Here is the input.
Amino acid sequence: MKLEEFIGDVLKRISKKNGFLKKALNLSNLREEWDKVCPELFLKKTYVKDYNSKEKLIVIECENNIIMQEIFFQKDLLIKKINDYFDDEILKEVRVIRGEKNG
Here is the structure.
């Protein structure tokens, strides 16, 4: 096991007991891996703004009203894709807000 994987495993175990660390870890992972889980159509117009670990909610900031609507219509598919990618139920809900991509 690589050191990076070991540290990741340790952080994952600790985060189960620490809500702040869990939020920070999941938010960081979602932002880092967004290009792998986000449909290509949305990628350049969206940014992971926030994550709420208690509600398992991701807040996506979007530049375009049309893309916002598409995300809303495809949110169940997006939730499933993200949970499958992370092999954990980290999401139950998606909220999309209007704004400029700043990530």
